[in-house]
Amino acid sequence: MTSSIEAVTRDWDSLTIPAAGTYALDVAHKRVGFVARHMMVSKVRGEFNEATATITVAEDPLQSSVVATIQAASVDTTQTDRDAHLRSPEFLDAEKFPTLEFRSTGVKSRRGSEFVLTGELTIKDVTRPVELEVEFEGVGRSPFGQDIFGFSASTEIDREEFGLTWNVALETGGVLVSRKIKIEIEGEAVRQA
Q1: Cβ 31 vs Cβ 49: under 8 Å
Q2: pTM of the prediction?
């Protein structure tokens, strides 16, 4: 590994970005979360505790790519009964479909440190296109000599388009669980040898 931070970064479009190479999501510094509306009046937040991703930073940054895998059974909303329901066939069916998968198909620069990452998200046996709003948070070297960069990303999906259709109608109108789910990702990626 080189000793100079300049050797692992480069300037591109007024940003200091990581050098080309393969990076892995740091499992100790990541959050793969989601937000759903409950009973049309409040928000419920949760996350998937187990997720991996490989990010290939290309010489041309707009040719970079991401492949990610999320373990469905790792869903965690801090409520045991709700988590069991989310793992059940009425939602993720984690036993039959153990992973959620994402594979990028393109990167577009928006402005400054903001990008759009297009890709295909697979939940259960349904694959649909999604667009993630990505913010590049910076690049550096950890005290342990690891070359890292940070990012955040978000998107909104219609869960029913992925076959997650369970719901209950409310007497006051509306439904128990919103169709629209916001996905929120925060992470650090570590350069691989």
Answers
A1: no
A2: 0.89
